[in-house]
Amino acid sequence: MPKARKPSSVTDSDVGDTEVMVMRFVELLKDEGVLKTLRSALYPQALSDKLDKLTRTIADLTSQLETKEKKITALEERVERLEGECDRAEQGILKTDFIDSKTI
Predict the structure, then answer these.
(1) Tens digit of pLDDT for each residue in 25-55?
(2) Which of 7, 54, 84, 91 is the most exposed place for a label (fewest CB within 10 A)?
(3) Whole-structure pTM value
């Protein structure tokens, strides 16, 4: 890339000072997050791609959550059935013990 010609009134130290000032300004922008925001505004496709990826991630996580909720519901129903079976078994054992104690 060819170097730009500078006016004769600008010295090398002026150019160096300007470069330092620009570098400090860029660092300040980075620190403040402004540069990232500007980059996103200048590159809306990149921002759109990130938004699409985020939307897909949310959809995946929602699907996983729904699957886990279904599994939890199935387990809760199974626990209720087993508790009912245990209650019936206990009642059967108690009835048998009561009948056995009367016959003895």
Answers:
(1) 777 777 767 767 776 667 777 777 888 888 8
(2) 7
(3) 0.44
